[in-house]
């Protein structure tokens, strides 16, 4: 018959002194990290506190988009996905505190279901051809989309031809991310969502809060959200964002590629899209006053 332990629980055995020292060192290291704010929970709280800080979107008085406007890029959803907005997908590894707190490039993007304007979801329409700030953005005119300054660092929404080593993590399609270099890879243009009316609208002012396509200038691929590619991020369940044109049987882009550049309600009561959904109508020749 096997015998159990014959010593008391307070008897020290083995490398008890070494174990005690290691435990004290671990506790000391924990307290030092806590004091410096380097614990994982502290980093996550600090990240969310700053990147989810509210941002005021631009108010358009003439119904058009302008260079310098702060907007949100919203997809109304589809068969397998909810309404979502292009968002900075920054995690604790993207966080830097020197010389000032912020996120570092390159940084990923995703489509989050949160509709609150904040540093994570706000983008600035930026000129790349010398157009002055405040001038009207036109269909087919090149521009850049830049995050807000400060914690979001003013990074550019960028894409490039996919390769074996550089592509979207889930779908393996063309990757979209944020870079600090405003090169040709960060140039985009807006076209009408209906191919049959695209030519008529070329060179016309782009209205705010209507469905359009956002095309990458170098690769000619449309910005897209994928409802069947789920990303589990620091902010919850979100969708993958890529640059890929999805065509239906009529050679028209599918709703994965349809985006609304949302502005703020003039009354200061949230997004026009949420407060006045009737204003977020589809742009057609039947309502030319939208231009």
UniProtKB/TrEMBL annotation:
One Pfam family it belongs to: CFAP161
Keyword Transport found: no
GO cellular component, as recorded: motile cilium
Keyword vocabulary terms for this entry: Cell projection, Cilium, Flagellum
Organism placement in taxonomy: Eukaryota, Metazoa, Chordata, Craniata, Vertebrata
Protein name per its UniProtKB record: Cilia and flagella associated protein 161
Record InterPro entries: CF161, MIR_dom_sf
Organism of this sequence: Lates calcarifer (Barramundi)
Gene: cfap161
GO BP term, example: cilium assembly
């Amino acid at each position: 018959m096997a015998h159990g332990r014959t010593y008391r629980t307070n008897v020290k055995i083995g490398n008890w002194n070494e174990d005690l020292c290691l435990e004290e060192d671990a506790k000391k290291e924990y307290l030092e990290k806590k004091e410096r704010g380097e614990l994982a929970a502290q980093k996550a709280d600090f990240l969310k506190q700053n990147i989810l800080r509210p941002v005021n979107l631009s108010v358009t008085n003439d119904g058009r988009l302008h260079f310098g406007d702060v907007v949100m890029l919203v997809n109304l959803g589809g068969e397998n996905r909810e309404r979502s907005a292009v968002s900075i997908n920054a995690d604790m590894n993207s966080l830097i505190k020197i010389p000032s707190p912020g996120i570092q490039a390159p940084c990923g993007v995703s489509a989050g279901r949160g509709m609150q304007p904040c540093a994570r979801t706000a983008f600035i329409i930026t000129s790349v051809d010398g157009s002055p700030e405040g001038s009207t953005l036109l269909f087919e005119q090149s521009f850049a989309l830049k995050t807000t300054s400060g914690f979001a660092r003013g990074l550019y929404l960028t894409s490039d031809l996919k390769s074996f080593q550089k592509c979207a993590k889930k779908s393996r399609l063309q990757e979209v991310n944020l870079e600090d270099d405003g090169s040709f890879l960060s140039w985009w243009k807006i076209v009408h969502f209906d191919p049959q009316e695209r030519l008529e609208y070329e060179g016309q002012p782009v209205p705010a809060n209507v469905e359009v396509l956002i095309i990458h200038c170098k690769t000619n691929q449309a910005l897209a959200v994928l409802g069947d590619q789920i990303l589990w991020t620091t902010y919850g369940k979100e969708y993958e964002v890529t640059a890929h044109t999805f065509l239906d049987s009529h050679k028209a882009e599918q709703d994965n590629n349809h985006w609304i550049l949302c502005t703020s309600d003039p009354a200061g009561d949230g997004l026009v899209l949420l407060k006045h959904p009737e204003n977020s109508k589809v742009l057609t020749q039947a309502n030319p006053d939208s231009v």
